[in-house]
Amino acid sequence: MVRWLVCTRWGPLWLWKALLVCVAFAFAGQLLGVIFNKTVPSAGRSILSAPDQGPSLGSCRPHTHIMFLKTHKTASSTVLNMLYRFGEERGLRFALPLGYQLGYPLPFNAHRVKGYRGPGASDFHIMGNHMRFNRAEVEKVMPSDAFYFSIVRDPVALAESSFAYYKEVAPAFRKAKSLGEFADNPWKFYDARLRNNHYARNLLWFDFGMDHNANYSIPLARHGEKVIKQVFKLILVSEYFDQSMILLRHALCWPLDAVVSFSLNARQQKSDRSSSSSWVAKAAPSQAKMLPNLSLTDEQREKLREWNALDWALYQAFNRTFWEKIQRFGLARMDQEVALLRTRREDLARLCLRDGGKPVEAQRIRDKTIRPFQSGVVKILGYELQPRLDNATRTACLRMIRPEIQYKDVLDAKQFPRSAAPAQPAPPDSKARAGLGERAGLGEGGGVRDWDGSHLKQNQTVKLR
Fold first, then answer.
1. How far apart are the C-alpha atoms of 126 and 279, rounded to whole Å?
2. Are 185 and 306 in contact (CB under 8 A)?
3. Where is there biased composition of kind Polar residues (predicted)?
4. Are residues 13 and 96 in the same domain?
5. CA nearest 366: which of 389, 345, 382, 344?
């Protein structure tokens, strides 16, 4: 009788068992759904905490005393981000500027470093903000065992980027309708007496602290190369960035993740004719629809190399020594490590970044604190983080995409907690802070100001020694 009641009134026993299994699966699925909606999968979380995946570096010890000469328009912002990340993760001290550059375009002076207490009293590990190199003053700040390195770029590619970025800043560029027109007859537009025209000629030579207006000669070029080699242990090449990172990693004895990066401070390559409502259109209505004309013929490219003959000589010399280092390193070995580096970058891009890791316009970045600084009509691109990252992953990913200006503010606030103001992003129109444009006093006349608003004097050149 009881068996009949169970089977007819409440259903057979096997049906109850099946129902309980279904309920258990449903509850588990709902629980897992809540977990995955809140955080990234555990496999993704472990990718940043995994041990170094790079080939063994042997028994060497990581360098922590580092001086990087941040040359202009050479992918140096991406390199600086690596230094910032490495130092922040390990609690190292940075030789930070009082403002945002170390007195540029004046030759570097040790007193431009925040917290500098005099020769022999410094306890800084890393120096890397923009400066015009001055060895004697740098040596007052950095330890004697510091590793010096820098990066160079083909002068034609550098001129293209410089023309796009400094079109409104350098009088020589501002007067030319296009880069091609400037290349055809540079002397028609160039006046060495005008401020900021150093951006228009031999910019690498200038950043290394030498006279960029000197007449080219083979002995002068060789002497400049010799002076640089006496100080800098490694010169990277922008066109071979990934190979450069492998050489740098081995020179510094750093883990692979320390040199994995996303390209920072990249400019938009095409004009956006539909963005009439953007801040660019409001600030410069007459130029907002079109980016600077950078097209060049082969003949014009050669003319630019002749115009930047000192830079071209440096580039050829250090490109040659760069590949000599790779030959000694081993071509097959280099190919293997570059492949590993690129795979790692792709993994981190999928983990960290929206839109498949593609850079986006600043106004599309929801988090205003990581929007890159904008200069002129050229749009500087940035990145957006994936949503719902766990805290540890988000912190690591944020370090990789944080723009240079904001990152400097963060480090400044940590290093000088009592004196530093809260870190805030630079507003798009803050050219006074960035030291760019006539609106900040960088025109052909009047006083020039650094990024911190302090007055700078007439450009000077450090004599070769």
1. 35
2. no
3. 456-465
4. no
5. 382
Q: pTM of the entire structure?
A: 0.78
Question: Where is average pLDDT lowest: 190-194, 267-271, 275-279, 329-333?
Answer: 275-279
Position 461 in a domain? no
Distance CA 116, CA 119 (A): 8
Residue type, 136: A
Could you give the 3-state DSSP secondary structure of residue 267?
strand
Interhelix angle 331-352/309-329, rounded to 10 degrees, is 100
State which residues form the domain around 399: 66-456
Query: Residue 275: is it exposed, middle or buried by C-beta count within 10 angstroms (0-12/13-18/19+)?
Result: middle
pLDDT band of residue 16 (cuts 50, 70, 90) is low
Asked if residue 137 and residue 25 are part of one domain, the reply reads no
465 falls within a domain: no
Return the structure tokens found at 356: 């498949």
3-state secondary structure of 149: strand
Do 34 and 71 lie in one domain? The reply is no
Tell me whether residue 448 is in a domain: yes
Q: Is 220 left (phi over 0), alpha (psi -120 to 50) or beta?
A: alpha
Q: Give the dihedral sign, CA 118/120/121/126.
A: positive
- CB–CB of 362/428 below 8 Å? yes
Mean pLDDT, residues 37-55 taken together: 48
How many C-beta atoms lie closer than 10 Å to residue 246's C-beta? 24
Pairing of strands 126-127, 455-456: unpaired
Q: How many CB atoms lie within 10 A of CB 83?
A: 22
Q: Are residues 9 and 73 in the same domain?
A: no
Q: Which amino acid is at 454?
A: S
| 26 and 129 housed in the same domain | no
SS3 of 68, please? strand
Same domain for 15 and 96, yes or no, is no
| Cα 206 off chain centre by | 20
Do 147 and 67 contact (CB within 8 A), yes or no?
yes
Grade residue 441 by pLDDT with cuts at 50, 70 and 90: very low
**Best CA proximity match to 351, nearest among 394, 380, 381, 382:** 394
Q: Same domain for 84 and 30?
A: no
As a whole number of Å, the CA-based R_g of the chain is 27
285 alpha-carbon distance from chain centroid: 29
DSSP 367: -
Q: What is the mean pLDDT of the chain?
A: 80
* Among 65, 139, 156, 138, CA closest to 102: 138
Q: Residue 72 pLDDT > 50, yes or no? A: yes
> Per residue in 346-388, pLDDT tens?
999 989 888 777 776 766 767 777 777 666 667 777 777 888 8
